[in-house]
Amino acid sequence: MTARPALTPAPNPARRQKDPRQLLRLLAFARPYRAAFALGGVATLLSSGLGLVFPLLFGQLIDASFLKVGSRDTTQLDRTVLLLLGVFAVSSLFGAAQSFLLARVGTSVVADLRRTLFAHLLTLSPRFFGNHKVGDLTSRLTADVGTVYSVTSVALAQLLAQIVTLVGSLSLLVLTSWKLSLLTLAVIPLVIGTAVTIGLRIRRASRAVQDALADANASASEAISGVRVVQSFTAEHAERKRFGVGVQAAFDAAIGRARWQAWMTGLMGFFTFGGLAVILWFGGRQVMSGALSPGTLVTFLFYAFQVGGTVAQLTGLYNQFQEALGASGRIFELLDEHSDLPEPSAPAPLTRAEGRVTFEAVTFAYEGHAVLRDLTLDVPAGQIVALVGPSGAGKTTLVSLIPRFWDVSAGTLRLDGTDLRDFALRDLRAQVGLVPQETLLFSGTVGENIRYGRPDATPAEVEAAARAANAHEFITAFDLGYDTVVGERGVKLSGGQRQRIAIARALLKDPRILILDEATSALDNESEALVQAALERLMQGRTTFVIAHRLSTVRNADRILVMDAGQIVQDGTHAQLLAAGGLYRDLYELQFRQQTAQAADLDPEPAPVTPPAKPPTV
After folding, report:
1. Domain region containing 453
2. Coil, strand or helix at 51
3. Please, what is the Cα angle at 51 between 37 and 87, to 5 degrees?
4. Which residues contact 70 (CB under 8 A, 6 or more apart)?
5. Which of 54, 246, 379, 394 has its CA 20 to 30 A from that of 133?
6. How far is 233 from 9, CA to CA, in rounded Å?
7. Is residue 474 classed as helix, strand or coil in its secondary structure?
């Protein structure tokens, strides 16, 4: 057997959530759109650069108006206004281009990230989904991915633009008046210190909001998907209370974040406008003494406003990056998850299996509890095997190992002599068909559900599969036939109709190995007869594992395996096992004899009950 690759342990989530390098991982998703991003960045820089011209032109406009009081020569004033309007027009054009290009990049990145995350989720094993709530996963897929939108689009370009504006404004401030510049620069450290200190708290609060919303979404998702159970137990009040607790937690976390954001806004506003008031006071004294012209003071004030506004913008961008770090931490937790079903580096070829399944000393444990114990079994291709035994004996676990929903803990499971772990998962599962007790249909049409395993199947092939599954008649009775929408999880169809569509789906897939997990146990007699006839067609020529409580299915099997406590305790035909006695006969006496009498329209006398045999010691 080939060596198994070791799984790489996932990074520490707590550390990853605080790692700014996550933003570089986000930017990797923008690489395919770098041309549009670059053009958007250039447009942003040009728009920001033109913004540095505004204060100078406004200052000239003031001097042209007030220093020539009484003069009729408006040439300089007119020229300045026209130039100002031209700068406004060009700056607006670049601003519009920047807005469109960067929004396109951000939207594309978010779409790609959602597709990547969803595709990755589909590769993870049932063990992962057993440990995570669906609502939490969908919250990360939607809300958290949406949170990083601004970072992968506008925020980065704005960061560059604000840095250019800050550097340019500070330089022009010094050139305009170095004395006033000293007052301006004294305020900046206060603003930056406030932004950094409070920004860290906003980041932690944002993470708490996202986690609380995910928990609330998970609660709502469970209640909605199981609404019939909720209503049948009149548990609406309990579910409202549970969801309300989650919403309240999200509300409290959001209020905490809003409180810190309010502190940030208030302090930043005080430092910014308080500083400008001091600058205006000192600059007014400079004008009164003749050291500055009114236009120069106005120019300086505009540059000071730009510096203050830029620092405020940078603070807002810092908060956006902090929120994005919290969201990206949750996203990359999923993207860094490794499936516990590793794919082989060089998969063994598998196109059309014969169907021989061999268990060699297989043991399987889940959460430290042994479910299967040293189980050995060889099933030839084309054989129909029935699995019977008490609840918890390991029947469903055994058949779940065949399509590698789980990997064996010890031993080897082979298909046609090759270890299952040497096949690509996609190739292996293409050979396996599953018809479970609770059939899951997707919220599309009947035809789409039948075609689920073979999207390229023709309408004639779909109809042939439906006829073989005894489904064509009821399908064509619908007004829209194969275009009838089945509703979420097939809620618009009866149990027997859903099962026959599932059988048609399996027939169209044409697997070599078939797993029937109590496929008729929840049906009425009429539906069972139709489904059973369809199942008999489906089983022809395929290696079939049947978990059943119905005697008709068990008696027609080529072989019956009796399981108890994770082991096969009896193996043989119906007649052989009855003659041998033991657990199978006990099950037959307790469950099957009355079914036989009912099937023959008899009124059976109570069958003598043989005390159950003592289970073998494990």
Report:
1. 380-599
2. helix
3. 100
4. none
5. 394
6. 43
7. helix
503-528 pLDDT, tens digit per residue, is 888 888 888 998 888 766 555 565 66
Dist CA 235 CA 221 (whole Å): 15
The set of residues, in sequence order, having a beta carbon less than 8 Å from that of 301 and lying 6+ positions away, is: 55, 276, 279, 280, 283
Q: How many CB atoms lie within 10 A of CB 35?
A: 10
Return all residues near 261 (Cβ < 8 A) that are at least 6 apart: 202, 319
Angular region, 59: left φ>0, alpha ψ -120 to 50, beta rest: alpha
- Can you tell me whether residue 108 is helix, strand or coil? helix
- What does the alpha-carbon distance between residue 120 and residue 589 come to, in Å, rounded to a whole number? 49
CATH code where residue 464 lies: 3.40.50.300
Residues 6+ apart with CB under 8 A from 385: 379, 543, 544, 545, 546, 557, 558, 559, 560, 561
Rg (CA), the chain: 36
pLDDT at res. 600: 52
Residues in the chain: 618
Asked if residue 348 belongs to a domain, the reply is no
Residues 326 and 241 occupy one common structural domain: yes
Q: Is the pLDDT reported for residue 377 higher than 90?
A: yes
Q: What would the 3-class secondary structure string for 211-244 be?
A: HHHHHHHHHHHHHHHCHHHHHHCCCHHHHHHHHH
Q: Is residue 421 part of a domain?
A: yes
Q: How many domains does the chain have?
A: 2
Same structural domain, 506 and 569: yes
Provide the angle, in degrees to the nearest 10, between the axes of the packed helices 525-539 and 459-468: 120
C-alpha angle 457-383-521 in degrees, rounded to nearest 5: 75
pLDDT, tens digit, for every residue of 342-374? 888 899 998 888 999 999 999 999 877 889 999
Half-sphere exposure of 186 (CA within 13 A, CB side): 11
How far the first Cα of the chain sits from its last, in Å, is 28
Query: What's the rounded Cα separation, in Å, for the pair 380 and 383?
Result: 6
412 vs 418: CA distance, rounded Å: 9
CA distances 302 to 38, 107, 176, 310, 441, Å, are: 29, 34, 11, 12, 64
Residue 152 exposed, middle or buried by CB count within 10 Å (0-12, 13-18, 19+): buried
Is 303 within 8 Å of 169 (Cβ atoms)? yes
Whole-model pTM: value is: 0.65
